[in-house]
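STRUCTURE:
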């Protein structure tokens, strides 16, 4: 009887020869010795397979499997699942690296301790690549499922019995979002999904060279079909309706609207947007008819899907232009008790207004008209609109721009020192830049009524003298 090893690392390899030394080195330095590396050479033509073969003599954990090119990563990963002997399987890519020498050992120890079927490890990006870190705020033994659905790359630790017993496999062939289809089943079939963030476990490395799948043109119809498959998996396997709605809202926001998201729509030709609209309409009709499901969507996703339903490419481009525009404060002045803020804009905001919103406050937001030219705007805030506080009050500043597809609400940015002005009632007004680069106003406690009367009396006495 063969005693299983702790973890099988499965890596599909296709023309990755320049990157393999760094990847292999990150594995060979692991403190966990009880692991195996299954490298599935998917018909490489650059010597990747021969290089891996040359390592086997002094790298006993390595097994190399050769197969004809399948054109995508799903088939070689499935081959790796079939050949894996580990109690756990970890999927990696040959152009990335593991975090530190304790990565595998720490993942296995955590999964054993908590009985996790899937462990989502903290990952970072390098080489100019970005990867959102909000999902890694804290370690979660029982992770919030909508949060784990924000990471649909396969670099996770899976209990092998989960994949084997439920026949969880990657779609084979050229299927977009094959990782997401795989994970949408694995996450929801698992008895426990965890997030582990005590160290960096995996580094996604950006490379300009190479034939990356992400660089290939996307067929909107095929892409939306893959998103539909993921939604169907959620509907079939998620037993809590509210959780299912939150997961699907995340999939709509990140995947179903991919081709019409603001940064793409603003420069896209109407013909290209309409190529996305047709499958998006079918997606809405299939999956987003229920009121509770639609209400779970973010405002941005609803606007994008409504534009698709209306076939409104021009209206979407107008909305996207306002949504992606940058509004930045560049000059602050105080003139006779009125605070003047002048700013630049990357897109005309004619007809716009500014909204002052008290942070954590109970007062209703106040809306102020602004003067707008093609490239600049100016806001005047009378001191009466900055209500006298009993303590410190903070106001955030938003630009409101009306479009045919609704009102766009964006934070006003700033890169300022902290000019401070004192009103005659003792209030100190400070206009400053937040840590996220946004414009905010701090108003400190002023003088009370009796104190103001006493000060006025002292001034009158001085004048009489």
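SEQUENCE:
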């Amino acid at each position: 009887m063969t005693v299983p090893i702790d973890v099988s690392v499965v890596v599909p390899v296709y023309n990755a020869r320049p990157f393999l030394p760094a990847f292999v080195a990150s594995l060979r330095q692991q403190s966990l010795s009880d692991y195996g590396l299954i490298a599935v050479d998917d018909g490489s033509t650059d010597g990747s397979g021969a290089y891996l073969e040359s390592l086997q003599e002094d790298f006993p954990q390595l097994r190399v499997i050769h197969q004809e090119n399948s054109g995508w990563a799903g088939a070689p990963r499935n081959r790796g699942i079939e050949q894996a002997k580990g109690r756990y399987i970890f999927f990696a890519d040959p152009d990335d690296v593991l975090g530190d020498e304790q990565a595998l050992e720490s993942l296995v120890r955590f999964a054993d301790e908590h009985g996790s079927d899937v462990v989502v490890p903290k990952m970072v990006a390098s080489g100019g690549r970005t990867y959102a870190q909000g999902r890694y705020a804290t370690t979660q033994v029982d992770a919030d499922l909508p949060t784990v659905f924000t990471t649909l790359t396969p670099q996770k630790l899976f209990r092998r019995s989960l994949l084997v017993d439920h026949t969880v496999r990657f779609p084979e062939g050229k299927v977009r979002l094959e990782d997401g289809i795989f994970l949408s089943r694995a996450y929801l079939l698992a008895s426990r999904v965890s997030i582990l963030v005590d160290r960096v476990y995996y580094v996604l490395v950006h490379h300009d060279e190479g034939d990356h799948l992400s660089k290939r043109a996307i067929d909107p119809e095929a892409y939306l079909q893959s998103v539909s498959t993921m939604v169907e998996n959620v509907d079939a396997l998620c037993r809590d309706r509210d959780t299912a709605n939150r997961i699907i809202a995340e999939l709509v926001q990140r995947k179903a609207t991919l081709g019409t998201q603001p940064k793409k729509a603003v420069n896209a030709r109407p013909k290209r947007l309409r190529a996305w609209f047709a499958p998006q309409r079918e997606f809405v009709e299939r999956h987003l008819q229920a009121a509770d499901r639609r209400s779970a969507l973010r405002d941005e996703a609803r606007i994008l899907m409504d534009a698709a339903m209306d076939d409104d490419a021009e209206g979407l481009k107008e909305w996207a232009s306002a949504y992606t525009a940058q509004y930045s404060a560049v000059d602050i002045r105080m003139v006779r008790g009125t605070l003047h803020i002048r700013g630049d804009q990357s897109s005309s905001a004619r007809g716009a207004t500014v909204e002052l919103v008290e942070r954590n406050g109970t007062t209703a937001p106040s809306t102020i008209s602004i003067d707008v030219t093609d490239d600049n705007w100016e806001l005047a805030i009378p001191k009466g609109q900055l209500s006298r506080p009993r303590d410190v009050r903070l106001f955030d500043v938003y630009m409101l721009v009306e479009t045919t597809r609704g009102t766009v609400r964006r934070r006003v940015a700033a890169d300022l020192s902290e000019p401070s002005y004192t009103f005659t009632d003792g209030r100190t007004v400070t206009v400053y830049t937040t840590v996220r680069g946004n414009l905010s106003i701090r108003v400190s406690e002023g003088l009370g009524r009796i104190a103001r009367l006493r000060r006025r009396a002292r001034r009158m006495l001085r004048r009489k003298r």
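REMARK: The chain has 15 helices and 21 strands.
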